Amino acid sequence: MKISVSMLSTYLYCPRMLFLQKVLELEEVPKEVLVMGSIRHESFDMANKREEPIITGIGSLDFSYILQLYKQNYSKFLREIIIKNKPNLREVNVSLIEAFKKSWPSLMTEADSRALNVFSFIEKHNVFGKELWEKLIPKIKSEFRVESEQMQLKGVIDKLYLYEDSYVPVEFKTGKMPRDGLWPGHRIQIGAYAMLLEEKFNTQIKEGFVHYLDADEKRHLEINPFLKEEIKSLVHEVQTLIEGRKLPDYCQNKNKCKKCSFSTICYNEEEMEKHLKMAEIIA
Ligand code: SF4
Q1: Rounded mean pLDDT, 245-256
Q2: 227: Cβ below 6 Å to ligand 1?
Q3: Is the shortest distance between the CB of 197 and ligand 1 below 6 Å?
Q4: pTM for the complete prediction?
Q5: Of 26-35, 100-109, 121-130, 259-268, minimum mean pLDDT range
Q6: I want to staple 154 with a disulfide (CB 3.0 to 4.6 A). Which of 35, 96, 98, 147 is the partner?
Q7: Which domains does the chain have, with CATH numbers?
């Protein structure tokens, strides 16, 4: 059974949560962090998919003008996404203006980094228009799908940098950033994407990043053979959990439960009993 990369991350966070989602098929109540996370994901995706007209529209080598072009477009994209998410924002009591203010800083950083990359490229190669778009390195893909029969794994990479001789996966995350390095599930996610890319492109992936959007910081991960072994055995553990259909115990860290959108149902024995019975019937 092929599983998704995000399932590995959820499993590491709390196996019972994965069971609730994938075996009992319970849906999470939309919380502010989920809604805001989805707005930021969608905005970055739109920024990638609509980058060609921005780049081909650049007419002169002036950094502040290029940056302004990016900012104007990104602001338009973000407003479009926020309006689309209006019903979800209402559900979590976040106003449209508040959603804009919270999401804008990470998009500004992205605009700054892309404008700088394009500016440096034009400065070096003196190309504009269609030629600039075609020759620009790195190319950036968003929502890039990868899967492997052999690894029994599939996933969607938030952002993929394509250089002439390498690929670098980047995962966007909202919420608290760890003091050092990456949260365990995020480390596994990037590692798994790297393995899937290695198989797809028949090349070695040396690194990846997690971009913690709220802190606006990118954390680096070096891919090594130990990480790959860890991922292979996690895939097996998750498959066993899903196929075994045995409800795992509560997670040990009660702070996680306090923040969890399943907590009301998860600790309600009667409700859980009902859902377990329903799942058995479906199974
Ligand atoms: S409430 Fe706690 S044990 Fe239950 S799914 Fe959430 S984190 Fe896991």
Answers
A1: 93
A2: no
A3: no
A4: 0.89
A5: 26-35
A6: 147
A7: 3-243 (3.90.320), 249-282 (no CATH)
